[in-house]
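FAQ: What does a multi-protein file look like?

Like this. Sequence, then tokens, then the next protein.
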Amino acid sequence: MSKKTKKQALSLSKNAKKYIRGIAHHINPLVTVADKGITENILNELDICLDHHELVKIKIRADRQARDAIVENLIQASQAEKVQSIGGTLTLFRPNLKKPVYELPQ
């Protein structure tokens, strides 16, 4: 997992977050965190999805307190930017510097 240590946290502008939320509204969750919580397989799948899609919705099936901890762990492990979290759905964005999918507004 040395790849993750090289990636740096980003900070999206207000306009960029608004733009990404608009795009995210129409996509389905690609990753689901269920009873077992965050496993190595989930982190690997999330990393692959973020590299390929840049924008990923995650369905989290847990109570509110556990969900908050899971959200923080996923953000930290993936080094992605939290776009929004509504109920059990988390949206993360991490740009792919080699092959960008989205061109963000300033």
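And here is the next protein:
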Amino acid sequence: MGELLTTGLIGKWGYEFGTPMFFIAMVACAVIPYLLGSINFAVIFSKVLHHDDVREHGSGNAGSTNMLRTYGLKTALLTLFCDVMKGVLSTLLGLIVMPYYTGFAYISALCCMLGHAFPIYYGFKGGKCVATFAGAALVLNPPVWVLLILSFVLIVYISRYVSLGSVICASLFPLLINFIPFISITLEDGTAAGTPPAGIIAATLMAVLVVVLHRKNIVRLWQGQESKISFKKKNS
């Protein structure tokens, strides 16, 4: 187990750029997270638990916020937990495959979010990636994750707009990981392994994806027409 955490699954076979194992790992860290991200728990739980389709209610979005508005807190929390775990597991895959190059973890996180937003199982129409993003951020940079969660809770508590908190916190992520790098490993030469360029690019794309998926919410916020969050169950 210690060797796995130190060298990763492909470390013993060589993980330098250009080697076959490098490209195999790269494909695995893209395809597996995408397929995992494509599993939409909002759709599954609305059908299994309520014999309904959440996409036919409220905002039409297959996510935990619409689940909360439509079915109540318990179903929403279950959906939220599973969507967060998609991000966690996908990002861990990248770290396990290649812990020496954390760019793989960021790529895995981005691909999982793409799967959630554009799921192959549901006609490429999915959710807005906030919970999946949160799960990925937890693994990628726990200190930054804490700051983002505190900021999100404060923004939503004050404004009652989940979309506002989501957009602001996602936008802050690629900035904060530069100022607060999470150092998880030390290379053989004694230098610290911070966020690689591929990680910065992937983190930026993750933030852009969340913002783009919330473009209609942003317009409604600007127009003062965005719905505020409520913890009251509207229908059974």
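Q: Is there any per-entry metadata?
A: Some entries carry free-text notes. For the entry above: The CA atoms of residues 157 and 177 lie 25 Å apart.
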